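Hey all, quick one. A colleague (J.T.) asked me to put the 1,3-dihydroxyacetonephosphate job into the tracker so the inputs and the C-alpha cells live in one place instead of scattered across chat threads. No bug as far as I know, just bookkeeping. Sequence used:
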Amino acid sequence: MANRKYIVGNWKMNGLRAQLSDIAAIAAIAANNEGADVGICPPATLIAAAAEANPGFAIGAQDCHFAESGAHTGCLSAAMLKEAGATYSILGHSERRADQQEGDAEVKAKAEAVHATDMGAIICVGETEEERDAGQAIEIVTIQLARSFPSGASADWLTIAYEPVWAIGTGRVPAASDVEEMHAAIRVKLGELMGQGSDDVRILYGGSMNGGNAAELLAIPNVDGGLVGGASLTAAKFGPIIEAAASS
Ligand code: 13P
C-alpha cells in the first residue's frame, strides 16, 4: 500500500474559541510533517474560525444531514459545512449511531450528500464488545460497511474508519492481530463493493490511539491512518501521533 498515512482528530463535543490556539499549534506540527495528511474535526461552531485561521489545513465536520435543505431543526447540510470551510465530514460515528439512532441507510445517504457537494467522507464502522465476544466482529463490521457504502465511491473522497466501540475512550486497544484481521476483511469487502481502486481507499483505525501506541498501530498492514479522539485535543498529545504517521 503506497498510501500516505491520514491522521484525523475528532474533537467530538469539546472546544470553545479558546481552543482555536490548539488547532493552530496542531496545524503547525502538520506543516512540519509533510509525510502524513492531517486534519481536525472540531465542533461545528468552530469550523469557520478554524478554517479561516489555518488556510491549507484540513478542517472537517463530525456529521452532516443527508438533505440539501429543509425542515430539519438543528441540522447542518453539506453546503453549509462546506461554506464554513469544512472539506470533509466524519459520518456514522458509533456515538451518533447510538445517541441519534443513525442507521446504515442514513449514513450511506449522508456520504452521498457530502460527495455531491465535493467534500470527502470518513465512514465509521465498528463492533460492540458483546459482538466481539460472540465472535461476530468481522461479520457485523463488513455488513455495516456494505450497507453504509455510498454509490460512486472512490478513494479520492472516501475513507473508512474502523473503530471498535469498546476501544473508544477506554484506553483499551485490540490486539494487533485482531486489528490486522479486521482491516484485511474491510479491504476484501471494499474490493467486492467497488472493484478497481479499492486498494487506494484509506482504512483508519480509531479507539484509544495515543502517542505511545500510534507507531505500532500504524505499522499494521492495511492501517492507513488513525481517527483520534481524546489524544487529538492538544498539540502536546496529538503531535507525537502526527510524527509517528509521517515517519511510518
Ligand atoms: P478516543 O481516541 O478518545 O478513544 O476516540 C476515538 C474516536 O471515537 C474517534 O472518532
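Adding what we noticed when we looked at it: The two ends are 12 Å apart (CA to CA). The pocket of 1,3-dihydroxyacetonephosphate is lined by residues 10, 93, 163, 168-169, 206-209, 227-231 (CB under 6 Å).
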